[in-house]
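User: Hey, my collaborator sent me this sequence without any context and asked if I could get a structure. I don't really work with proteins. Can you help?
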Amino acid sequence: MAEPISLASGLLALATFALQSSVTLYNTILSFKSHHTRVRDLVEELQGLSEVLNPLSETIRATTEIDFSPLDLPLLRCGNACKEFEQELLKCSSRSSDGRTSFRDWARLRYMGDDIDNFRRLLAGYKLTITIALADANLRKSSVTAESLRSYEDLIQTATDDLQARLESIDEKLEVVLGQTVAESSPDPTELNLIKEERLSTQKCLQICEQLSEHISQIQLNAKLSASALELGDLDAVPERVTNEGLQECKNSLALTAAKLERHMKDLIDRLVTTSQATTSKDDATDLARLRDEWETTRQCMDICSKADHHLKENVSIIDNFATGDAVQFMVSTNGKILHGKNRGTGWKTRQVGGYLSDAAVMHLSRDISGISHRNMEKEVVSTRGNGPNAAAENGQAPDFGERWGRGFTLVSRPTWEGTSTSMGPAERE
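Assistant: No problem. I've predicted the 3D structure and written it out in structure-token form, which is a compact way to encode the shape of the chain:
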């Protein structure tokens, strides 16, 4: 008999377990003949989940440089959810008069009180989280296009929104279960009431931390300095930079507070599960334990998305250069950060540099371009002097020659074979 899967089983074992469980559920559903729209949607979701779990397993086997340990709990819950849903499906079909091969009563099928659509959305959350973890790892190893970055940003936002909705749904279910448990408990439900009140208070504090952190992010976004101002050491940027650093410290402190509150919330839910076992049925106790595990997993998935979003902002330099006239534009990365931006200029003398270069190469290019600009400026000064109001007279030209024909040059005479003279231009004299 195989060892039961747990968090101690190792990341590769958990990924393999999740993959095998999803494939088994996929094949079990296909063994039934009746597949309406919602069932087909679930089949497609399971297929997509397997297509994400396969490369994850291969990546874990191939490298030890990437840390996928935050996925351990989502992978465990994903595999367990597929196994448990398959058990509910087989149990429901065995009670159906249609029999397994022609099972039609999909609407009666429930998992943790939810129907097929909600279970499909649960799997979609796992799939998105794993996809983001893989993309985050690849983002730090290779360059991507601007279009890929936008798609990645949209993916993170979609996953975060879906997980937030999932978390709210779990909180509502926990509230219902807690209310029923308090009502059905012993005449002195003091402990359960205290758990209920403390859980609501902790949940409110978590919301405050999230809202304040989001507000600080908006302030930082509005006050964000351009990269050029920071590189040039603009004195006016110092107060804003110091303010930004202080705001970031506030966000870091809020993150630590939220982590403590989440651990406290988990402890409260654990106490709720333990206390409720004496007053609830076995099935209700099982659902409550699953809700606890799902709450913790959803929080972990949201943390993965949050860190991926932070890595995206941390590892991508966004530059938008625009200049007119005689300008030099640099859009380079000297530290391996991904470049996402544009060099735009309308002047015919605009010079642009872009790409991944070393510090020494950037300094060398900067000196070369500055030298070229200086030499061009000296030539223009000389040219301007040569085109002054007395230039034509000094060159022996008519006063209006320059206005009509340009600067020109003076011809010199030379002897010919016939004893006459002709004129020779400057090119010939050389």
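In plain terms: The first helix runs from residue 11 to 30. You can pass these tokens on to your collaborator as they are.
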